[in-house]
Predict the 3D structure of the following.
Amino acid sequence: MELDTGFFLRWMDACARDVDREAKTLTELDAAIGDADHGENLRRGFKAVTAALAEEPPATPGAVLTLAGRTLISSVGGASGPLYGTLLRRAGKQLGDASSTDLPGLRDALAAGVDGVARLGGAVAGDKTMLDALLPAVDALDGGLQAAATAARQGAVDTVPLLARKGRASYLGERSVGHQDPGAASSALLVAALLEAAGDEAAGDE
Amino acid sequence: MRRRAMSEVTDSGTDSGAAAGPVGLVLVSHSARVAESVAALARDLAAGGAVAPVEAAGGTDDGGVGTSSERVAAAALRADGGAGVVVLADLGSAVLTVRALLAEDELPEGTLLADAPFLEGAVAALVAASAGADVEAVAAAAEEAYGYRKL
């Protein structure tokens, strides 16, 4: 499947819509083990992304993600700004100047983004972070967008029994067990939004 | 080690053509009041000689709790006198925002994030910077503040 600039614009648009719809749920998850601002922070961030993309529509997939990433970093006051900003910006850099990409290209771009997130936050799989949704999604992406979305969703759910080892939740120690990580939950939303961006095409992807 | 590092740079600037000012400091906190207060305390405790620039970058653009990448970048520009900038950050998004900006080369050349306790590190760094230490020695002074035992 060909993934052109329009696909990436629709992806960011779907992210903004889904984050807006789920902001309350994300904030509730964050209230349990964080500082109860995750939904609102991401809503503000993706609203700014939508505005930035509309103001100066980028010409390539890479430019869409780079601009979106930069906008998240500058508009979100919480840790999700630099983390998601790095995810998208690194992915955008990996895509380079190409006018379109394909599923393997998307996988490589997201893998680069996820690697950037891991370096920035110093987290590894199992630390109860967004990586626990993103790493399985990247691994599953060869099987299509639906497979990636399912893997991310499962990865997020699987953070419930984990002990948080990064961020504010880690101060809670054992009390972080039994709650879904809000970053993993929002990561699963972003991966699922890929499916929305693909629309009918995704039904037939390999 | 800190003393040695500082003594190495007592002639800082004499051989670099364009005379660079002292190393600048940027304090990044979730709270604007914390960043400004720690900057003020560091200035008070470091007084006695020429005090290097120390700029506060606290809170979000709308005055809330969090980190503003624009405030961080602007503070780094103000603090930069050409000899480098050392940034200290408190927690979470403050640290991640500075690291994200550094990864994308969006802070002045020669900017270092010190892995240091915020308040103690700020005092140590400002004393070192005001004494003319170079950017790495200033960062090292801040980082050594982890070793100041209180008991």
In short: Confidence is low (pLDDT under 50) at residues 1-18 of chain B. Residues 34 and 49 of chain B are 24 Å apart (CA to CA).
